[in-house]
Amino acid sequence: MAGFGQTLRVNLANAVLRNTAYTSPTTVYVSLHTGDPGVDGQTANEVSTSGTAYARTAVTFGTPTSASPSVTTSNAAVNYTTATASWGTISYFGLWANVSSTTAANFIGANTLTGGSQVVGTGNTVSFASGAVTHTFTG
Prior knowledge:
The structure is a single chain. By secondary structure, the protein is mainly beta. The protein has one domain. Helix content is about 10%, strand content about 30%. It is built from one helix and eleven strands; from the N terminus they run βαββββββββββ. The longest helix is centred in the first third of the chain and has 13 residues, at about 5-20. The protein starts with a strand and ends with a strand.
C-alpha cells in the first residue's frame, strides 16, 4: 500500500466535499514495518517495541510539489535509537498522528523504502537523511 490510509481518505473527502471539520496532527511519526502495513496500518508487522529499543520517530515535511502526483519529502534527518535486538528486514514505513497508537484513526499512510529493504540487527542504528522520507499524494 502506498499513499494515504483509508480512514484519512474518508476524513479528507468529508472535509473537502461535506465541509466537515478535520484537524491535522500536530506531530507526524514514522513507523518501520517488515511488511505492508495495509490500508489502515492494522496489519501486525510494525517493528516490536518489546526489548528492541524501537519507537516511532517524529518527522517534519517540506512543501509538496505541484506536480501530479504531488510529492513531499522530510525536511530534516529522521534518527532512531540503536537496536538492542533484531528489528528484522524493514521494507515499509508508515506515518502516524500518534507516537504509539495503532488505531486506524491515527494512521496517515505508508510507502515502501526507497532503495529496497534493510536488515536491522542488534547494534544497528537506523537513520534517514533529510529528504529521504518521501510521501506521494495519491487518491
